[in-house]
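Bench notes, afternoon.
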Amino acid sequence: MFIQVNNLNKSFHNEPVLKNIHVSIGEGETVAIIGPSGAGKSTFLRTLNGLEKPTSGEIIIDGMAVTSLDTDLQKVREKVGMVFQQFNLFKHMTVIDNVAYGLIRVKNVPKEEARSRALTYLDRVGLKDKANRYPHELSGGEKQRVAIARTLAVEPKVILFDEPTSSLDPEMVKEVLVVMKSLAQAGYTILVVTHEMGFARYVANRILFMVKGEIIEDTTPDVFFTQPQTERAKAFLDQILDRYL
């Protein structure tokens, strides 16, 4: 398997946040991680690229043991890119320099080549014309698309999205989801923590439903949304449905 997680546990101040997680993910899968607040979804994502160190357990991605003390986390993050909820763009840099930054700092690409490659990825997310703008001149949706371009530029094999649309105004959500859908169709391995049930149902090919630090359902979108196997999942879906009535 491309991603293998074995007996993963994480506690903060002796409070369990992740409990005995076992999961295997194939290359090219798009996995939506959903569940109530406080389920450990974001913490789980952050363990996959080494931003959080597990209390115990093993994570292997493309043959690299993320949890090994001998593993260079910089190498992990070249393979496992992450897009955050809050964009994390450098305010004093132009859009193109934000995207080029990782290429220069992480991969030692010469500046002009990095800027040229950055333009390619900005074009991919539909923002080539904003290359010389600054973050404060962009909408929230545009900032998030720049963040996606920055992640793509270092050519990761896995992309982690941590609630990428939750900070956006509703009308800006679609433009980000369209880019994410295109990446899924292009064959990237994607794990996304999301409240966007349309994306989870129609773009993801797999659902991980988490509650209190555990994955209690691991199934296809069709099964999860039409025949959830646990009462907790049924209650969750009822609440989601009621929200749109």
